[in-house]
Amino acid sequence: MSKKALIVYFTTTGNTQMLAESIEEGLELSGAEVVLKNVSDATSDEVTDYDLIALGCPAQGTEELDDTEFGPYFEETLPNLEGKNVILFGCYGWGDGEFMETWKEMATEGGVNVVETYINLETPDQDALDEAKALGERFAAI
To answer: Tens digits of per-residue pLDDT, 46-71?
Structure first.
């Protein structure tokens, strides 16, 4: 039986969506059944139906999660992610990507098994898209 994977992402410029689609490709190549959703179409309780969860959000403001859609979604969903295998990914445009370490810490403190994180500076190039695809393949193999 193949694993069921859910990818939920937020994007403002399309960069994080590009990573999400590459992770989706890697998961599918490895035989996973994948559902890809923009955060505006996702619900906090649906994560319970999936074996693997990938969450994507770019850095906003001073290296923070988006506080309009993704941040509230993550806070509401966090209790349902306890014990789940999750990867976190996103893009940033300044700083050093510190938002990812903060996000990983929040998730881990909430009982999430953060398998891996991935961040990319600015628009993903082909190498970054290939890395995201490989991330999806590794994730499907756990």
So the answer is: 999 999 999 999 999 878 999 999 99
| pLDDT tens by residue, 92-139 | 998 888 999 999 999 999 999 999 999 999 999 999 999 999 999 999
Q: What are the residue ranges spanned by the domains of the chain?
A: 4-140
What is the token pair recorded at 12? 């403002």
Helices (H), 30-82: 70-77
CB atoms within 10 A of CB 121: 16
* Superfamily, domain 4-140: Flavodoxin domain (3.40.50.360)
Question: Which runs of E-coded beta strand occur in 2-142?
Answer: 4-9, 33-38, 52-56, 85-92, 113-121
Sheet with 113-121: list strands edge to edge.
Answer: 33-38, 4-9, 52-56, 85-92, 113-121
